[in-house]
Amino acid sequence: MIPVPGLAGRRVAVFGLGRSGMAAARALKAGGAIPVPWDDGVSGRLQAEAEGFEVEDLARAEWPGFAALVLSPGLPLTHPVPHWSVTRARAAGVEVIGDIELFARAIVALPEGARPKVVGITGTNGKSTTTALLGWVLKQAGLKTHVGGNIGIGVLALPAPTPGAVYVLEVSSYQLDLTTSFAPDVAILTNITPDHLDRHGGMDGYVAAKARLFQALAPGATALVGVDEPETRAVAEALGERAVSVATAPSSTRGEGKILAAPGALNIDGHIIDLSPARSLPGRHNAQNAAFAFAAARALGVPEAAAVNGLLTFPGLAHRMETIGILGEVRFVNDSKATNADAARQALASYDRVFWIAGGRAKAGGIADLTDLFPRVTRAYLIGEAAGDFAATLGDTPHAIAGDLAAAVAAAAQDAAGVGGPQVVLLSPAAASFDQFPDFEVRGEAFRTAALALGAVPPGASA
Fold first, then answer.
1. Residue 182 to residues 77, 104, 179, 345: CA-CA distances in angstroms?
2. Is 150 a catalytic residue?
3. H/E run at residue 30
4. Contact 360/440 with Cβ under 8 angstroms?
5. Which one of the listed residues 125, 146, 150, 337 is annotated catalytic?
6. Cβ burial 263-288 (10 Å sphere, 16+ → b, else e)
7. CA distance linking residue 207 with residue 173, whole number of Å
8. Helix (H, G, I), strand (E, B) or coil at 63
9. How far apart are alpha carbons 24 and 359 in whole angstroms?
10. Residue 156 pLDDT greater than 60, yes or no
């Protein structure tokens, strides 16, 4: 746990008692503050009470008595409308912050020589893989590394800071909206494509939230920016010479970056690094992820050979192009984390032909942007709320509405086996999971369970 200093003896409202909220309450208490937790759900309040917190209905609280409101990133700060707790806090002149901001204040309160290094990673897609990949590279290089934030362990639940340690943090646009002083030593923006627009009031607001990663950078910090999209190129241009740009090949519609990433290789100012043996990093998007991890590791002092070794030995990220089983010549690939079309594009583009499982709760635009990849789809199996709309977009591409995931896996496996030869059954939903599953992890595990139930054998296991 990372105790939060500077609020000793003061009341701090904590709204939303999920993973980050409970971690914030514990960290505030450890730093001497008086957290006042509340949640609309009974289970969250009961958990807080079970841990000895004094739960108080914040709708009836005297807000001028609070030093701050720590808001769950899942609750709206500005759009579509501010959460009522935000409105109450602002009316009382109470600052509204999040767990990343509390972390930032805990780090800056340390003596300069005792501060750890911090890496902040954001972007629409690729941030989780880049976070996990960099964490792996640093650990293999012998650095004491803590990985968390928007992935895995909440930031304030990570181990307390020690000199020489490195925190590798995935940060979402929601979390960045709630911070003003987060100043990572290495800041990475992977890409920006339309997502969460309802929460940011449109694309401009979404881009502005992502760009907040760079708002408090120290003079010696490293800024790594993917420049494949016009929005990220604008961010890089605003940073000027401070930005190290990362582009992917081919780059016919964009200027090459200072680092050029292609499947199986990195080109860093003419220096070629061979990544072809890295089986867990297929495709153009993973080349970009590798470029970010390599550049960040080097900025943190990791020798080139050690950084390359880490990339080549990376085992892959769960639910992101993860081979979870093999049945005969059919390989089952779990890409449940692809919750929008752009993320699914990365997976579809990595295979010549696939039996594609897609659907869920659709994002704006559905799968219309993927039509150029439909020729790679041998057959699609559509699930969830989006099934009908996805079917209409697929048009003449062979497809079936399977309804639920288990039925889709069974049908895809049977059809793939019937074709013969090496085949891929790919779950890359291009949609959120919330119509049928609480999150993409549960959806991915349901895919794993369904494949193994058919007799698929996990990779590396004996048949």
1. 18, 5, 6, 32
2. yes
3. helix 19-30
4. no
5. 150
6. bbbbbbeeeebebeebebbbbbbbbb
7. 9
8. helix
9. 34
10. yes
Give the separation between CA 122 and CA 257, rounded to whole angstroms: 19
Catalytic hit among 127, 200, 258, 337: 127
**pLDDT exceeds 60 at position 135:** yes
- Our separate counts of H helices and E strands in the chain read 15, 21
- Tell me the backbone φ, ψ of residue 176, rounded to 5 degrees: -65, -30
| Residue 149 contacts residue 182 (beta carbons within 8 Å) | no
Active-site residue flag, 337 = no
Q: How far lies 286's CA from each of 289, 295, 321, in Å?
A: 5, 14, 10
Among candidate residues 79, 139, 196, 309, the one labeled active-site is 196
Tokens at 287, concatenated: 């080349």
Q: Is the pTM of this model over 0.90?
A: no
User: Helix, strand, or coil here: 241?
Assistant: helix
Q: Catalytic residue at 127?
A: yes
> In this structure, are residues 424 and 290 in contact, taking their beta carbons and an 8 Å threshold?
no
Which of helix, strand or coil describes residue 445?
helix
In this prediction, residues 266-291 reach a mean pLDDT of 88
Residue 66 pLDDT greater than 90, yes or no: yes
- Mean pLDDT over 220-232 rounds to 95
